[in-house]
Amino acid sequence: MNLFAKAKDLGIQTEFIDGHGRPHVTAADALEAVFAALPPQAARRLIDGPVVIRQGHVARSALLAGASLPVRWEIAGEAGVVEGEVDGGIIEWAAQPPGVWRLRLSDAAGVTEEVPLVSAPEKAFGGDFDRGWLLAVQLYGIRSTRNWGMGDFTDLADLIELAHALGADGVGLNPLHALFDDKPADCSPYSPNSRLFLNALYVDVDAIPEYPPEAADVVANATPRLRQSESVDYVAVAALKWPALRAAFKAFKAGAAPERRVDFEKFRAERGTLLSRFACFEVLRHRFKTPWWEWPAEWREPDEAACARLREGPDADAVEFVEFVQWNADRQLAACKARADELGMKVGLYLDVAVGVQSNGFDAWNEQGAISRLLGVGAPPDPLAPAGQDWGLAGYNAIGLEQRFFEPFRQMLQASMRHAGAIRLDHVMGLMRLYLVPRGFGPRDGVYVPMPFEAMLALTALESVANRCVVIGEDLGTVPEGFRDRTRDWGIWSYLVMMFEHDSQGTFYDIDHYQPGALVTFNTHDLATYAGWRHFNDLKQKRSLGFDPGQTDDDRWHALTMLDQVLGRHGIHGNSFYAIVEFLARTQSRLMAIALEDLLGLKEQPNIPGTIDQHPNWRRRMPLCIDEIAAAVDPAALKAATRERSRKRTGRGGV
């Protein structure tokens, strides 16, 4: 079988129409590299992939043509083993308890096969509110009189108080994933070391009970400069925080209060093997200072016996220190969630989830079959990125996920939902297919590799209901036909950005265009702020950097005219940002996000895609401290604009 025939057999799309409407065919050498990067897979002989049993729906599976009847099957599940036999070509499945089970089939010729069986609720959790809104912030950029030069979890608690006072139902955040602690300058929250753990720089060290006063005196001399800086100096912040965290850990080891020690052990039990492996990985990464695939052979794959030896040897304290830091991060974030719950905020925390991970990070080491380190997640050419995109992130592959019975994906969802009332899955089209670019090739040489879409939707719904967490899918860009119909059917909400919601003539859609099952916002962190958009700031910046902004000044004037027209059609006077808020607040979309930058009238956006050092991406700080923000916002105008989203909620379990 030649390469392209093999690709077709596996559903890999080597020919596609890009965002410009131009056909693309993947080169043979690039396709060969894709196959080399995927784990081996035995040919299916009895059944074509995972089985999904969805509550309230009939579930059937067709046996493959070569199966010798009768076929026996058994499901190893919560209640033991359920068995059956079929002598026809169709198996009709009975309901099973929610979860992921091991389905084993064997035919009359002695062929056996194991596949995952996912038993899921009918829909993802739909929230217990009617309509609400969220204050969207970049936590690192929050300024306060007490933090160490970047926002932290105590600032987040104060943001929750502020958001509640303004009438919001929660705070939306950039990803809080763990980054590389020894590379603080690599600060993109969308390029994580691990999506399973938290960024330690968000810990408020002063709030750790064991943090010694003498260590605090040293820090006090350095923080004033960092607090006054216009951008986050991650290197300097890290240089303060890591020694301070170690000082707190040393004091904890010397004599922690009994209840603190008990809670630490409880956390270690909660996170189990994953936490132990993460801590060992971090110690090894610092020891070897090279990518994990260049480590000594005994450490290139996670091994429980080897990790146990590491925990019991000279590195025992170093391993426990990593766990200590994650414990404090987790408990501080949990306290923020608890405060939002006390205030009656129906969402509390809305957390962003990156589409992939760094190939040399923990998740890729821990799940080498399910995560392809030699394949970068990206996107084909489109009007916003004419050359295509390779985001430099490793993503899941279907073969490895199915071989692991989807455990890596479930663990990622569970970690993301642990303290969240809602999450946003970045590039949610990855549940159906991923555009993968082999290392060493350009973005134009990628291929679309399919994922087990129905199983991924079922797993997302399963964890969403279990954690009572709304799931919003970032479905911008090139969206496959029928994709949104399936995600909506499973109760996963859309992500509607008003900037993009217009027809081919630039006419913005009316209020009734926005469906209920969605989060609506004017822009994103990758786009201009409202003030920046109105003042052409984004166009000027991109031109100054030598980029094609994708829009002329005349195009922008036309867009501004179209915006005035849609506001006028709905009786909304003026075009201040509060007018935009009123428009979006009147839509039926269940959630609305308001960026703090827009409330403050800032012109600079958090990130300009395609830049690294040319723009202070993920570094820009707010111009005001938290306690000054309320005075800079017009609370009366904001509450008038959001009056249709009051806190009087009605229970709703679905979309």
Description:
This protein has 655 residues and is an alpha/beta fold. Among the domains are: 70 residues, Sandwich (Immunoglobulin-like); 200 residues, no CATH class; 142 residues, no CATH class. The chain contains 21 helices and 23 strands. A hairpin with a 2-residue loop joins strand 5 and strand 6. Helix 3 packs parallel to helix 20. The longest helix has 31 residues. The protein is globular. The C terminus is likely disordered.
Short characterization:
The protein has 21 helices and 23 strands.
- Give me the secondary-structure category: alpha/beta
- Spatial strand order of the main sheet: 20-17-14-11-10-23-22-21
Q: Largest sheet, if any?
A: 8 strands, parallel
Tally of separate helices: 21
Shape annotation: globular
The percent range for strand residues is 15-25%
Helical content, roughly? 25-40%
Which residues sit in consecutive blocks of at least 5 with pLDDT less than 50? 648-655
Averaged pLDDT, please? 94
Using only C-alpha atoms, the radius of gyration works out to 25 Å
Distance between the termini: 46 Å
Count of beta strands = 23
